[in-house]
Each structure stands twice: as structure tokens, then as C-alpha cells.
């Protein structure tokens, strides 16, 4: 949840933050205090359990594997983010002389500590102008917490070989009310390659699409897009876009938004614009690909006690979206500028987006050529919304959408003609029941789909060819129940919520056009949580939560990994790892 002094916070305040939609604005103040009593006749919530702080955040995600090779850890930043809006940290990243490369892996560690009272904050790290990490922060307690986010950034090796500018942004405000300063450390560890741990194949060139300002992300108002004009190598063979997109203000929890006319009836509790969003990508104005955004919840979202100490899925380590633009390569090798555009379709408030291109080139030819042969992707999805009145003034809203599209193109290279086809189908349903003037809301969203990238290589002078395909499937179910039995002001309220969210990802490959699919990576990450938070006359009278996370899937080395965490009252109660 953003504070009202930031652009995102002001946007949220315009709609509903005077009350409590994502609830963080009033929930950052969870320590006991005194204030004017509630107006006469306002029922006080019954006293209940009050958490006495909470332990450091912990997640069931598998750790990044670290090769057993010679390595060098370089701390590239130690910085305190206090009154830091518009004041990012800037520095330089230089490859260590003792580990000059090649590297089998490069790992980024983002470590922090904070104490007092503070909002959750969006943060990002850029190296050589490319965003290498998108994250957000936990909300602290008075005693303070520490946490660490690690990420494999080996794919950015083309930028890491030479000194590059470093930017780290974490907009924060410290005053008499919001006292937490984020003390952050950023470390890069370079692991030397050897026979057992060779350097992996990476792109030949990494091309940032970030904005010219520092930091480089784009903060987009509803209806706006981020565009960057670039000149690409004339011997290009493949192009992949890595895109980041997170909603702000009312769109922090876009999945519980309702039609705008309904939100206007209860603006203190509901956000408008409806719940459907897409991350759309265009090349020279032509639709080229899209991704379904994950329903991220910040650490102050809904009820902050939901996420103590187990964070929501994607809360600390935001995964980017991969969009294969290879079918367009034949249109991009003419040496002229071309524009790549990212649009958060359906946005009803600010979205923060960014992107990076990963490019491979023909090592045996100065120029390639080709053409886009098919593109069935439309700019507007098929979105329908129906309403059904219920008992006691409740309204049930069902929103559905679906996509079924493909792009195809070829490029002539020294290895022959390479044809790439990208096909995707998606299915989306959001069922939302709103009652009691927006104080009670039950959301069940299902968002799933499949993307298949099929590549056929036909060597020159040969009639046949080799076909290889990679399939990526995803499912993002989320269920939310939110109750606000009482809200008077920031010192007198009663909030209750429960959430179940999941991210299921599977990557498979097959040789030929009809062979069996063979999975090589899988993620099934499920978080469930309940939380309550109430204040009476400025004093916290109820603050409690339960949480659990179950991760089943593979590690970055392909090994199976299974871990379950459970927590109560802000403390871990079990941690079970299975073989």
C-alpha cells in the first residue's frame, strides 16, 4: 500500500484510501497508541489476541543453487532509504578482478532490515539500464525485522562483463508517524565456470527498454503505454522480451475491482474498472504478445497480519513475464528504429512497468532476413461482465475473458531458414460478491493458459527440417474474503480477511511436432492466510493471523523440492521439508 504523499498514494486517496481498500494506509499504524475515542454509538470490537511483534519473514521457495566453484562476493551497495522518493541510490558494478569470468552463475542478494512503523514499498534494481530485480518490502514491527531476496541474474551476463551503472530505487518517507528506515545491502556473487559447472548459454546482447529517467521504470496512468525506440542487430536470429508490471493505488489489488458504476455507489470501500488486466506488447504498433499479470498482494494488502511472517506469493521476488518476439525478427533487421510498446490493458490506476530484450545473433553472417507471416492477436480481448442481484442488497458479478491467438515468422540464417510460431490460449473467470455497501466482498478468480513456441529449422539445400517445441502453462487461482464490520477512521476500525492464492507453472519440451511432452521445470506454490486487525480509540485491540505455504516443484537444477511452512500469531510453528 502506498502512502498518500507518493504519486501512487495520491491516486489511491482519490478513490478510497480515506477508508480501507487495500487497507495498508490505516494498517501501517498497528502499534498501540492513544487517540480520540470513537463517536458515541459506534460499537467497539471485542478485545482479542494482540500479536507482540512477529519474526523475520520466511518463505518455502527453494533457494538459488550455488555452484561449488571459486567465487567472489562483491557488495555493490550499502544504503539507507529514508526520505528517498526521487532519490535512488546510484553507483557502478564492476566485474571482480579475481573472478573475471566466464561464470557458471551470478547471484544477486538484496538484504534489508527495518524497525518501527512503515508502509510496504516497491523497489527495483537496474544494471546497465536493465531492471534485474523487482521486489517490495515487508511492513515492520517496533523490534525490527530482517529479510533477504536472492535471484539468479546469469542471463544478464552480457551486461555484467564490463563496468555498468547501478541504480537501486526504494521510495520511502520517514517522519514522526512513519519511522522505519530501510537499511539495504546489495551483493553480487560471481561463480567461476569449470568443467563440472560450465558457463550456460546466454543471449548475445541484452537491450534495456527502460525509460531515460532514473530509476528507469515507467509509471503509467490509466490508458497510457510505455514505448521505446531501438535499433536492433542486422544479424538478429531470436528476440525475447522480459517484462515487469505491477499495479498501484486502486490497482494494487485489481482482482477485487468492480464495474466503475458500482464502485461509485460505495467509493470508500470499492475500486472501479472491473477486475480484468493484461500486459500487452506491440512492435511498431502491431500486437505482438501478451502476458496475464499475477495477482500480487503487498505486505500491507487486505489485512497486514495475513502476511506475518509468511509473505504472499510474488510479494518479495516478483517474477517477470517472458514474451517471445522471434516471429517479428524478420521485420526488425533492416537497421531502422523500431518501437516496442508495453501497455497494462484495463488499468484503472497507476501501473509500474519495464522491459528488457534478450537477443541472439548469427555468428556466421553479418545480416539475416525474413518476414512475419501470421499475426492473429487483436488489441482488445473478449471481456464480458454480468450482474445478478442477491439477498440483502448483495450483488454478484461474473467477469470472463478468453484469448486464442498465434504469431508466426521466419528468418534466413547461416543455419538455414528458421520458422517460429508462438501460440497462446487463455481462460479467465472472476466471481465477485459484494454486500453491505462494499464492506463484505468475496472474490474467486481463475486465470490459466498455455503458450507454445514451435521452432523449425530447415537447412539450405535440404527438403526436411528439425522441429522443437517448448510449452509453458500457468494457473493463478486466488480466493479472497474481506470483511470490514466497522470503520470510523484510522483509529477506530475492525478488519478481517482470508486469502488462498496459488501459482502453478509447468515447462515442457518435445522433439518433433507430435512427440510426447517432457516436463523439465515445475512450480506449485500455495499460500493460505487469515488475519484480523482492530483498533478502538487508537489502541490495537485485535491483531492476529495464521498462515501456511506449501511449495512443490523443482529447483533451478531440476531437483524435486517440497517444503511446507505453518505459522500462528506471527511466528513459525512448523517447517517440514520432504525428500
UniProtKB/TrEMBL annotation:
Q: Which UniProt keywords apply?
A: Signal
Keyword presence, Signal = yes
| Source organism, top-level taxon | Bacteria
Task: Note whether Signal occurs among the keywords.
Answer: yes
Q: Where is the Peptide N-acetyl-beta-D-glucosaminyl asparaginase amidase A N-terminal domain?
A: 68-374
Region feature (Disordered):
37-67
Residues of the signal sequence? 1-37
Q: Which InterPro entries match?
A: PNGase_A, PNGaseA_N
Matching PANTHER family, A to Z? PEPTIDE-N4-(N-ACETYL-BETA-GLUCOSAMINYL)ASPARAGINE AMIDASE A PROTEIN
Protein name (Swiss-Prot/TrEMBL): Peptide N-acetyl-beta-D-glucosaminyl asparaginase amidase A
Q: Which organism is it from?
A: Actinacidiphila alni
